[in-house]
Amino acid sequence: MANTKKMDYVLLGLLSHEPMTGYEMKKRLDTTLRFFWGGSYGSIYPTLNQLEKEGKVTKEDTSSNGREKLSYSITDCGKDALIEWLAKPVEKDELRYETLLKLFFGNETGMEGAMEHIERFEEKCKDELVVLNMFAENLGQYLEDDTHKHYYLTVKFGIKTYEAYLEWCREAKEQIKEWTKK
Amino acid sequence: MANTKKMDYVLLGLLSHEPMTGYEMKKRLDTTLRFFWGGSYGSIYPTLNQLEKEGKVTKEDTSSNGREKLSYSITDCGKDALIEWLAKPVEKDELRYETLLKLFFGNETGMEGAMEHIERFEEKCKDELVVLNMFAENLGQYLEDDTHKHYYLTVKFGIKTYEAYLEWCREAKEQIKEWTKK
DNA sequence: TTTATCATATATCGGTTTGATATATTTGTC
DNA sequence: GACAAATATATCAAACCGATATATGATAAA
Asked: Which of A84, A135, B111, B158 could, after both became Cys, cross-link B35 (CB 3.0–4.6 A)?
């Protein structure tokens, strides 16, 4: 079967925006993409080497003053592979929410435990919403650019979902209070 | 550091409800838990063997008519480990949405590509919502039971989020139409 | 001025998990 | 009776994460 490795396309996608280093890619994954995708050094650097061997990216040594720095760029071949992947239907959208796992098995620790997890989750959601709203505001100025349009849509997705999470938190807390007072 | 392997606690959690086989656990992961957690045979069976060696579960051969069948039960030691984990704060809640990834890098394929992915996503969300609403309706009858209360809260979470996804789909499609007609 | 800390930058390793596959029996259907 | 589907256990390569090692440059505090 064809290449199904996701990290390949994540890195090609980032390089389709602009050339950058592995370190910068990690930063993007930890900031811009963090709401819907992750990635570790342990998969970034080996993948970069593999993509170079396949001719999908080129490596350029842009070190200065002894500070090692390898800048990667996407090739035509790499762009073709990216476009081919983008056109294919999505294989899997996946949630891995430990909070829900602990809530689901929470009958072992009682409703107080559930309540605590919900409250911690609520706080985290509020923080994320602040960040996402800032992103949306900043992006509003650059919406003539196509890349930013796509970015904007994903940020909007994040805002919608975190708002829904907060709504659920309020309702779940209310529900638990009702259950426990009886 | 202590054990951070998630599958241990997923299986212990399932066994805290009732004894079952590895095959049944996989089915639970594919139905009840599928909205917030996954799991494959490749991690279920080895983990089960490891948990038995650690004394956290016991294995009983309940084969009949030559059909192999190994039923697992949780021990007191296993229950302690589960309760300890449940009390700890959540380490990570994670989304891995390929749809958003393809949307984010979609400037390579234009807005038509984005539109297609959103529409496919929308259909999938509608289907999931039907299933979740059925779950919620069925669960309504058993809400005296604590295990079902916790289950109910996670289903409600799913419903809230999928409704938010659908709302986002409508708005994103509207937004794209506005952008492209200009 | 020296020292500590943080940011930049590449790279690897062990352990966890996925996805696919192999094997074998029973049950249900045409 | 033949065939497909469900039940059931198990393994393997490949993918991926989290932590760590290493080293330099910049910045701030002492």
From this structure: B158
Tell me which residue of B59, B50, B54, B53 sits closest to B15, measured CA to CA: B59
Burial A77-92 (b: 16+ CB within 10 A, else e): ebeebbeebbeeebee
B96-107 pLDDT, tens digit per residue, is 999 999 999 999
Contacts for A27 with CB less than 8 Å, ≥ 6 apart = none
Residue B4 CA to residue A53 CA, distance in Å, equals 36
For residue A66, what pLDDT is reported? 78
DSSP string over A27-85? HHHHTTSTTT----HHHHHHHHHHHHHTTSEEEEE--BTTB--EEEEE-HHHHHHHHHH
Query: pLDDT tens digits, residue range A37-81?
Result: 999 999 999 999 999 999 999 999 998 877 899 999 999 999 999
Distance from CA of A82 to the nearest CA of B (A): 8
Which residue's alpha carbon is at the shortest distance from the C1' of D10?
B45
The nt closest to A46 (CA vs C1′) is C11
For range B43-65, the mean pLDDT: 95
Asked whether A42 and A53 are in contact (CB, 8 A), the reply is no
* CA separation for the pair B44, B11 (Å, rounded): 8
- Quick check: A156 and B171 CB within 8 A? yes
From A66's Cα to the closest Cα of chain B, the distance in A is: 34
